[in-house]
């Protein structure tokens, strides 16, 4: 027997603080085995992703489609599921909603990185992009970092206002701005989570800024201006989510920045902490290990 969780139940099984803690525990243990994900273009900018991972006890595979054209058609851009197995018996234990897992684990990773890297993790926070990831990051920053004030920027004024209203429903302060750059001077915490088909942030950023760049996950995609990326490299620090970013971090690759020497989030958690100073860029591309952490937590929550 296995349980099937819809989007609502999947979200309920992945509370923000517990999910960030689970991801940190997985990285510190270093026992996850995560082969390179299969990325198969299916035409017209659409992609099918197959992402397996195991820790020797739990195994899971996320199978999702990414259809960029759906953004303007009223359909979700990410669809699919996460199948979770018990390694010892081979039994399928759980099926989770793929888009919900993707949204929550991505935002939880950003919040985890901010815990350890941000000079001012309590914000105020600027969120550039008011879609699914914008909403997830707003919730994660509020629940995990204690952020109470948000500034929302989006190409769609209606989407920005909808996210502002969602923030108000959670008892948070929020406002929308037409120009993201206008808020950089007052927001030390920044998240970019757009479709990454155009540069949305050029800077300048504050000396104590922490920017989580989430939207770009292929060499062709980018959200950050090349000059801004180089500013982080020269005057602050760049951390990538995993070593896979070496061939996926379009923001950095298009800026001519060598990704291989950069520390990963696991390096940050398992190594000595360098003194803080200058702005920090956290470049996130995604990794099946985050989905594995979500699967482990969801199994325990349902036990």
UniProtKB/TrEMBL annotation:
Name of a matching Pfam family: OCD_Mu_crystall
GO cellular component entries: cytoplasm
Taxonomic superkingdom: Bacteria
NCBIfam families, alphabetized: PRK07340.1
Record protein name field: Delta(1)-pyrroline-2-carboxylate reductase family protein
């Amino acid at each position: 027997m296995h349980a099937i969780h819809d989007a609502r139940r999947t979200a309920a099984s992945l509370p923000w603080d517990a999910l960030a803690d689970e991801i940190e525990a997985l990285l510190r243990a270093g026992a996850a085995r995560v082969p390179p994900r299969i990325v198969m273009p299916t035409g017209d900018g659409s992609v099918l992703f197959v992402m397996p991972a195991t820790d020797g006890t739990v195994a899971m595979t996320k199978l999702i489609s990414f259809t960029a054209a759906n953004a303007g058609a009223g359909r979700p851009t990410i669809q699919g599921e996460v199948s979770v197995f018990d390694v010892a018996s081979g039994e399928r234990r759980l099926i989770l909603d793929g888009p919900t897992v993707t949204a929550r684990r991505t935002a939880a990773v950003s919040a985890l990185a901010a815990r350890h890297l941000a000079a001012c993790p309590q914000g105020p926070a600027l969120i550039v992009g008011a879609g699914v990831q914008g909403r997830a990051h707003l919730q994660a920053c509020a629940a995990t970092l204690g952020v109470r004030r948000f500034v929302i920027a989006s190409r769609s004024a209606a989407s920005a206002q909808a996210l502002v209203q969602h923030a108000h429903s959670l008892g948070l302060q929020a406002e929308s701005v037409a120009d993201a750059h206008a808020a950089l001077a007052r927001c030390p915490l920044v998240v970019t989570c757009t479709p990454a088909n155009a540069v949305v942030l050029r800077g300048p950023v504050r000396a104590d800024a922490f920017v989580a760049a989430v939207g770009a996950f292929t060499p062709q995609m980018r959200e950050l201006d090349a000059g801004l990326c180089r500013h982080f490299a020269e005057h602050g620090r760049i951390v990538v989510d995993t070593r896979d970013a070496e061939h996926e971090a379009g923001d950095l690759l298009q800026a001519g920045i060598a990704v291989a020497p950069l520390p990963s989030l696991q390096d940050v958690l398992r190594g000595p902490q360098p003194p803080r100073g200058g702005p920090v860029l956290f470049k996130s591309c995604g990794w099946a290990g985050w989905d594995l952490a979500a699967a482990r937590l969801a199994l325990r929550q349902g036990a």
